[in-house]
Specification:
- With about 280 residues, the protein is α/β, with parallel strands linked by helices.
- It has one domain: Vaccinia Virus protein VP39 (Rossmann fold, 3-Layer(aba) Sandwich), CATH 3.40.50.
- It has nine helices and 13 strands.
- An eight-stranded mixed beta sheet has the order 4-7-6-5-8-9-11-10, with helices on both faces.
- α3 packs across α4.
- It binds S-adenosylmethionine (SAM) and zinc ion.
């Protein structure tokens, strides 16, 4: 619920502390943001961009994730996450964040809480329905409206990564978990339906992007096969970036396909102030 996480947020205009009073969130400088009837808070500084998931894509994502085909991915991230505060950036419907918080909550009596951010209002509406989660509409590239050092885990699953921001919101002993597709991920679906392929060299770039702020603490690969029924296939195609480029045509046959994803774990670098006053990552 938003009320439970508002103390972890900051004003997108002035970075001031935010408080919630009578359905309105505001800072001391007078910036005001309305909490939507559905429970999410819009802290976008401008209108949502063209890359925000649409209502139809979000509905397809909900339907696909409900099949459990990606449950092993949720289990993997849940075993690697630490609490009590977990932030998922580009969270979509917050399927993975929900799995993490459920697992953390089952092992403790102290409160665990999560912030789901996404540029899509439709995705945030879904995320806002989940227990222990506050959903915030925000653009990962514009800077996250989250206070410095509050996140024990920052999670990014198939979503844009802004490591400078992840480092800022990460607690000193916090970690970042990133899930990305490996080249063979959904290869049969990509081939049969002529969809976008996973870029070569993507993983190398991920490590390079992170290294100024984070130490790479290893990775875990997951590989398994799933049998997609025609409806699953339509939802899978409809929920992804391909939905912007293609219509799901000819999806009448069940299809066996491979799931191959990588979880990378990053630990925050500590910075030491040198004698000449400069800072160096250690
Ligand atoms: C492939 S989906 C992944 C969603 C979720 N992590 C999952 O795996 O179910 C990518 C998500 O990133 C969101 N997104 C795209 N660009 C974004 C941005 N600049 N800032 C925040 N979210 C963004 C989309 O709206 C979408 O929900
Ligand atoms: Zn403000």
């Amino acid at each position: 619920m938003l009320a439970d996480i508002v103390d972890l947020l900051r004003c997108p205009q002035c970075s001031g502390v935010l408080t919630l009073e009578g359905g309105t969130v505001g800072c001391l400088s007078g910036h005001r943001f309305d909490m939507a009837r559905q429970g999410q808070l819009n802290l976008l500084r401008g209108p949502a961009g063209a890359n925000a998931d649409t209502a139809a894509m979000v509905a397809d994502r909900v339907a696909f994730l409900r099949t459990g085909h990606y449950a092993p991915i949720a289990e993997l991230v849940a075993t690697a996450a630490h609490g009590p505060v977990v932030v998922e950036a580009g969270a979509g419907t917050a399927y993975y964040l929900d799995a993490i918080l459920s697992r953390l909550a089952s092992g403790t009596t102290s409160p665990v809480r999560g912030i789901a951010t996404d540029i899509s209002v439709y995705a945030c509406r879904r995320a806002a329905k989940l227990p222990r989660i506050g959903a915030v509409v925000a653009d990962t590239w514009a800077g996250l409206p989250i206070r410095d050092g509050v996140a024990d885990t920052v999670l990014s699953v198939f979503a844009p990564r802004n490591f400078a921001e992840f480092a800022r919101i990460c607690a000193p002993d916090g970690r970042v978990l990133v899930v990305t597709p490996l080249p063979e991920h959904l290869a049969e679906v990509r081939r049969t339906h002529r969809l976008m392929t996973v870029e070569e060299g993507k993983h190398h770039r991920l490590l390079a992007d992170a290294q100024e702020w984070f130490v790479h603490d290893g990775h875990a690969d997951l590989r398994y096969a799933i049998d997609l029924q025609p409806a699953d296939l339509r939802h899978l195609i409809g929920m992804g970036p391909n939905a912007f480029h293609t219509r799901a045509a000819g999806t009448d046959e069940p299809l066996r396909t491979t799931i191959t994803v990588r979880l990378d774990v990053f630990r925050r670098r500590h910075r030491r102030t040198m004698r000449d006053g400069t800072q160096r990552a250690v």
